[in-house]
Design brief:
46% of the residues lie in helices and 11% in strands. It is of the alpha+beta class and 411 residues long. It has two domains: 41-160, Orthogonal Bundle (DNA polymerase, domain 1), CATH 1.10.150; 166-276 and 317-411, hpI Integrase, Chain A (Orthogonal Bundle), CATH 1.10.443. Helix 3 crosses helix 5 (120-136) and helix 8 packs antiparallel against helix 10 (255-268).
């Protein structure tokens, strides 16, 4: 279906006449992928396990392997396959046996990763993945539990520290207090009024309100939304990283978010299915009979009308697509002077934004408002209050008991 629509361009308004078309038939250009997009996570992992299995491997229970895969999330299977690929590449270069692994080889592998600049958390995850691989292949006690391997991990943490790099927060700003760097309010103000901008604003607003992980955000469907009488909404989360068994959870959505979602749905003509989809944008100059002017010459081609076609896809956004959206809008906000970022720090500030930035930003805003870690962990579906505290550690120091008591007497 093709729908002509008069669009406004508040950020910025184009200097030429525009003809805008929205196509909702879901036909989008195909992106190239280095891997086979049709391969399932199960097939990807099984193929990698087959490469790792030794020639003399004892028979593995097919039923046991099947149930093990059923218990894993798709993201875990892909991560396991990627970690195993890394180990297989190192073993091939060093001419070492991949499975069963020798503890000394594992220590040498860890040192190679450290020399390559990998963080302690990455090393720990790689070893944990190899332990899972050995259990899946029925290789007995995993060599990853050997004392020298555990000691190598502890030594790495002592040298480099165990603190993990945190995604740059996208805090709300505006009514919740001023903060430096990018803010949700600044990014929302930078979203344009066309169909792509409406999608971006709804994506940012909903992701912040509900504190969603990227997998939860891209999986939201229209059936998950429950509008309330006061204009707010509820979002049903049937499954999440910490709820693999599908118990389900609910998140609150502001009236502003519900309005932005409604605007995006109306312009994209989405009646069912996934909410946040790819928008293909095709901008071309045209010299149609209706728009041509007898005064135009070839040298004035730049003044011809701009034909903009938006194509709404059917498939959900990807993790990489969400990251690209955040960073594109952040650049637009900086260029429009809507955020407080020094010019020399702009590139680093944009690169620090990730799919976790909205979740971190909401966590920090709740800490700054005086909410306790247990309540925040429950609201954002953290596995424990300690995880929430890690994201709000600096703000917790500013609003903790020492700050509250001593600020009254030590001025």
């Amino acid at each position: 279906m093709t729908v002509a629509a008069p669009y406004l361009y508040p950020h910025p308004e184009p200097s030429v006449a525009s003809v805008l078309v929205v196509r909702t038939d879901g036909t989008l250009p195909q992106r190239r992928s280095a891997s086979d997009a049709s391969a399932t996570p199960d097939n990807r992992l099984l193929a990698t396990l087959a490469r790792a299995a030794p020639a003399d491997l004892a028979p593995v229970s097919a039923l046991g392997l099947e149930t093990a895969l059923e218990a894993m999330a798709d993201a875990s299977k892909l991560a396991l396959a990627a970690d195993l690929d890394c180990w297989l590449t190192w073993c091939a270069s060093e001419r070492r046996l991949a499975c069963p692994a020798d503890p000394e080889d594992l220590v040498r592998y860890l040192r190679a990763l450290e020399a390559d600049g990998r963080k302690p958390a990455t090393l720990a995850r790689r070893i944990a993945s190899l332990a899972t691989v050995h259990r899946l292949l029925g290789s007995g006690d995993p060599p990853t539990s050997a004392a020298m391997v555990r000691n190598a991990l502890r030594g790495n943490r002592r040298r480099h520290g165990a603190a993990q790099r945190q995604a740059a927060p996208l805090r709300f700003g505006a009514g919740l207090g001023q903060t430096s760097g990018f803010t949700l309010s600044g990014l929302l103000a930078a979203c344009s009024g066309d169909v792509q901008g409406l999608r971006d604003a709804a994506l940012l607003s909903l992701g912040y309100d509900a504190g969603l992980r990227v997998g939860e955000l891209t999986a939201v469907t229209l059936a998950d939304l429950r509008p309330q009488a006061d204009g707010t909404g509820l979002l049903h989360l049937p499954r999440s990283k910490t709820d693999q068994e599908g118990v389900g959870a609910w998140a609150w959505l502001s009236a502003d978010t519900m309005r932005r979602v409604a605007a995006w749905r109306a312009e994209a003509a989405i009646a069912e299915g996934v909410l946040f989809r790819r928008v293909g944008v095709d901008r071309r100059r045209q010299r149609s009979k209706e728009l041509a002017d007898a005064r135009w010459g070839d040298e004035d081609l730049a003044t011809a009308a701009l034909l903009v076609t938006y194509t709404i896809g059917d498939a959900p956004l990807t993790r990489q697509g969400v990251t690209a959206i955040y960073r594109r809008i952040a650049l637009a906000a900086a260029r429009a002077g809507l955020v407080d970022v020094a010019p020399g720090e702009l590139d680093a500030a944009v690169a620090a934004l990730s799919t976790h930035s909205l979740r971190v930003g909401l966590t920090q805003d709740l800490f700054a408002a005086g909410e306790d870690g247990a309540g925040i962990a429950l609201t954002l579906r953290w596995s424990s209050p300690s995880t929430a505290l890690r994201y709000g550690r600096r703000l917790q120091a500013q609003s903790g008991v020492a700050a509250r008591v001593l600020s009254r007497v030590r001025k």
